Amino acid sequence: MRRFIVALCVLGLLACSPKPQEANPALWRIEDGNGHEGWLFGTIHSSDRPLAWRTPRVDAALNGSGTIMVEVGNLANEAEVAATFARLAGSEGQPPLSQRVAPKDRPALATLLNKSGHADGDFAAMDTWAVALTLARSGADEGDTRNGVDRGVIASAGTRPVVELEGAATQLGLFDALPEKEQRDLLSAVVVEASTPDRDLAASWRKGDMAAIEKETRSGLLADPELRKVLFTGRNRSWTTKIAQAVRLGRKPFVAVGAAHMAGSQGLPAMLEAEGFKITRVE
User: Fold this and answer.
1) What are phi and psi of 37, to 5 degrees?
2) Which of 16, 39, 97, 210 reaches 20 to 30 Å from 276, CA-CA?
3) For 59-99, how does the pLDDT look when each residue is reduced to its tens digit (9 = 90+)?
4) What phi-psi label fits residue 33: left (phi over 0), alpha (psi between -120 and 50 degrees) or beta?
5) pLDDT tens digits for 154-200?
6) What confidence score (pLDDT) does residue 112 get?
7) Beta carbons within 8 Å of 227's beta carbon, 6+ residues apart
8) Contact 124/96 with Cβ under 8 angstroms?
């Protein structure tokens, strides 16, 4: 899923429109039965224009929260995130990219490389997972990460603590720890996705259409069982533990993570409900 990959990529684009685009994204309330509450808010990590995402219900939940919980807390510090990426991505003596994908995917790879201005041998010093993220960004028309809703939530924190569910090093480290076979599956998924029509998940996010978003989490790289286990299900389980603790301690967390992580029976709402919380979609 190209947008899921882009959500984890550290490179940004610069173009944006000054006119905000209306959005009505999904929001859930968490209750533990002891008077404690929190909120789950599905975000989008980049957009080609600013987004008017602070609906009255979202605004009330955000203003009423005591702690902000996000995937990565230092998104605005692009140099620091890029340095983390560079530190983990380096690997000398890698083969040309055409040898890291199946023969059937090589024509699509050549097209993507041409579009991004790269040659087959340009990534001899970069891990396969890092190449996949770089090409995902080059092949996508997602807009500017500065318009990402996560950044807006963090900027709204004020004096409240911002708690990272992962952080950039942990998040990118998940990719770095993948076996080479899975890294190559990731690269192939990026190449194939770049050659298929865009399904405009941004529109689904703006409408709060979780059915469409859930369907997308069953395709592309997340259709690969091993990649899904590491990049989706495993992360959601880890986050569920941290969110549950924050709610039970009365910290009133406003949890803002990519909307894909809210989707389906392995999404955060379902996992928290399985832990005994009452989960109510309020927007």
Assistant:
1) -145, 170
2) 210
3) 999 999 999 999 998 877 888 889 999 999 999 999 999 99
4) left
5) 999 999 999 999 989 999 999 999 999 999 999 999 998 888 766 67
6) 92
7) 178, 182, 185, 186, 189, 221
8) yes
**Which residue, 230, 231, 142, 144, is CA-closest to 193?**
142
Q: Give the burial class of 13: count Cβ atoms within 10 A of its Cβ; 0-12 exposed, 13-18 middle, 19 or more buried.
A: middle
Per the structure block, which two tokens stand in for 249? 């301690």
User: Worst-scoring range by mean pLDDT, 40-44, 201-205, 230-234, 244-248?
Assistant: 201-205
Task: Give, as one character, the DSSP assignment of residue 270.
Answer: H
**Pair 186, 1: CB distance under 8 Å:** no
* Sequence-distant (≥ 6) Cβ neighbours of residue 145 within 8 angstroms: 12, 13, 45, 46, 75, 151
Which residues share a beta bridge with 126? 90
- Residues 70 and 153: beta-carbon distance below 8 Å: yes
Taking residues 237-255, what's their average pLDDT? Answer: 98
State how beta strands 21-22 and 278-281 pair.
unpaired
Contacts (Cβ under 8 Å, ≥6 apart) of 114? none
| 193-218 as b/e: b if 16+ CB within 10 A | bbeeeeeebbebbbebbbebbbebbe
User: What residues does 22 pair with on adjacent strands?
Assistant: 52
Q: How far is CA 57 from the centre of its chain?
A: 23
CB atoms within 10 A of CB 225: 9
> Three-class SS of residue 47?
strand
pLDDT in tens, 85-136: 999 999 999 999 999 999 999 999 999 999 889 999 999 999 999 999 999 8
